[in-house]
Amino acid sequence: xxxxxxxxxxxxxxxxxxxxxxxxxxxxxxxxxxxxxxxxxxxxxxxxxxxxxxxxxxxxxxxxxxxxxxxxxxxxxxxxxxxxxxxxxxxxxxxxxxxxxxxxxxxxxxxxxxxxxxxxxxxxxxxxxxxxxxxxxxxxxxxxxxxxxxxxxxxxxxxxxxxxxxxxxxxxxxxxxxxxxxxxxxxxxxxxxxxxxxxxxxxxxxxxxxxxxxxxxxxxxxxxxxxxxxxxxxxxxxxxxxxxxxxxxxxxxxxxxxxxxxxxxxxxxxxxxxxxxxxxxxxxxxxxxxxxxxxxxxxxxxxxxxxxxxxxxxxxxxxxxxxxxxxxxxxxxxxxxxxxxxxxxxxxxxxxxxxxxxxxxxxxxxxxxxxxxxxxxxxxxx
Length: 382
Known about the structure:
The chain is built from 5 helices and 28 strands. The protein is globular and about 100 Å long. It has 382 residues and is mainly β. Helix 2 packs across helix 3 (43-51). The protein starts with 18 loop residues before the first helix and ends with a strand. 29% of the residues are buried. The protein has a 7-stranded antiparallel sheet with strand order 9-10-11-13-14-15-16, with no helix packed on it. It has a 5-stranded mixed sheet with strand order 22-21-23-25-26, with no helix packed on it. A 4-stranded antiparallel sheet has the order 3-2-1-28, with no helix packed on it. Residues 68-341 form the KIB1-4 beta-propeller domain. It comes from Paspalum notatum var. saurae.
């Protein structure tokens, strides 16, 4: 009887990579493009990126021409067909007939009304002597979107205003439900210099340029059931004595972090050079909202394992250790769309900068750069 010839052992396949080992590898790949490349190898690896409990990848940098950077790399790429602004995890497509939001990571979509379609409260409102929504809606003063937040599946809030009313974020607060035909606005509320807003513990808060923290009480329209503002109240009074010197510019951010509400005060020191007002050193101060005592409390740390990605359209607090970074770091952008009327830059390119709360030093830890003419760079969070 002939002796059986043993079959040649098949070499192991990369597709057979154990899930626990795939998870270990993926945790060493915090960049979005690296995880996308990993998932493209085979269906098994793609499943690992979808079903394993992984920390989110590092945020992307989004430019308004449709170019994106995946931290920490300096090579740009594009989401096909996208040329727009960003809001948190959403790409925003403003159109004449409305606003279209896409989450490029999940494929989810949201439709919002056009800013020209606003329901006034009361409906018979007439113009007043101070700037209100009626002034924004005058001919040739089409409103612009200064800030957009998807608070919940049933509530969207926005700052909308007009640059014709003055410099900065002079605007009013609008709200609607996704898919609604119009926004709602309190017609007689004065336009304010709003800096930022946040949805915190189920409530909407707005931060004004005078550092007043406002709470926006929301009710339902008795006829349509749509959300509407019933009252805007002050919960913390800002510091009226804080200097706003000619030699420095102040910017404010409002962020939820570890179940606390933080205000970040950013100071950009400026100097004159060649007849221009030129941006220089950045400093940051962080305050926690003590809602029980109605006051801002200075804090010297963001808390254990916390760091901030700071930008005017969208900011977020994240775990530092999941990216192999140290806590108490603030990564920030130039927010050029807001600043370009206030000051210029010595160089024609800029980058992401990092502020260390422990040392007060600013560094540029990431290699990507872009031209200052590329306004409105912002974070896109996977």
